[in-house]
Amino acid sequence: MKLSPAASYSAVDQSFIDARARLLDVAAFLDRVQRYGQEDDFRVAALKQAIAQLSTSEPGRVERILLELSDPSLEPIPAASMQGAFGAYKPQS
Amino acid sequence: MRYIEPHAHMVSRTTDDYTAMVTAGCQAVCEPAFWAGFDRRTAEGFHDYFLQLVDYEPRRAKKYQLPHYCWLCINPKESEDVKLAEEVISIIPSLLDRQSVLGIGEIGLNKNSRNEYKILEMHIQLALDHDQLILVHTPHLEDKLKGTKLILQALKNFPKLKPERVIIDHVEEHTARLVLDQGFWAGMTLYPESKCTPARAVDILEMLGTDRLWLNSACDWGHSDPLAVPKAGLEMRRRGYSADVVDQVLYRNPVSFLSQSSHFSISNEEK
Description:
The structure holds 2 protein chains of 2 kinds. Chain A has helices spanning 11-35, 42-51, 61-68. By secondary structure, chain A is mainly alpha-helical. Chain B is α/β, with parallel strands linked by helices. Chain B has an 8-stranded parallel beta sheet with strand order 1-2-3-4-5-6-7-8. The interface between A and B is large, with 35 and 39 residues.
């Protein structure tokens, strides 16, 4: 079933303040890691790179950000040495 | 609003959550076997956990008038030890005829390792051998895309498998189409941080439609919300969708998939 959003629904009215708050949180996070001298962390670099997607005009920003943060390889790794995940792909050095 | 919670780890929740879920309209809860936060060391430990899922937790839920179902497997996080995993898998067939067991799950991959993949294949074969539904976990965060592709490849290697009897869970914007395009069901997990928010899940429904999709909270001992599914329903209502559309996504879709198991029955007025 295809969904047809109601014409009367205002996504901006409903979500702008929430989006504004999240954007400020990202800005505060970047200021914080800079203050603590942790800008070189690969996750921070990946986040900064992904942020560029926010200024594009093409739809699909979420998907493109998720793809940028993903492991692009296809072969299973020899063995799992940990159980958690980082949130951003760490390129092999 | 009535809804099914098709994926919740209730053994790690309090009875307050049962009260809240039933009050919000939950009609049934389904609990896949998962990781306890630490690695169990013996097959006997898993056997006790399986008994908790098939015997104890349904009794606890029944006190709150909530039917409780489960899925059995060894979680991919504990699949690196192949010998232990094989022992655990050998226990499962003896429990599959229990009335609350819906199938094999949540199987899948975690770090996308060779051993995890091997145990995934063993679980798929187990499900085929016993004509069971399959619930698949896809990996977290940066591992999800690769893991989803590997899982789809593994499933494809079993030509007798019917895709409509498999649900691949935890899809997001970059994996949902991959799953749906191959005929599988897809689950969207509503997490405060690491998976979909209710708003993003409704966005995905708007982009892909409602067919073969369900929503779940996957609430466990971590940062999660046992009321995430009805909150997504509220998000749909805010955007102007009718109560019938919300019912389709939150109730009739999961009932449609789960009813493929003869063990699932819901004594409600209308499916």
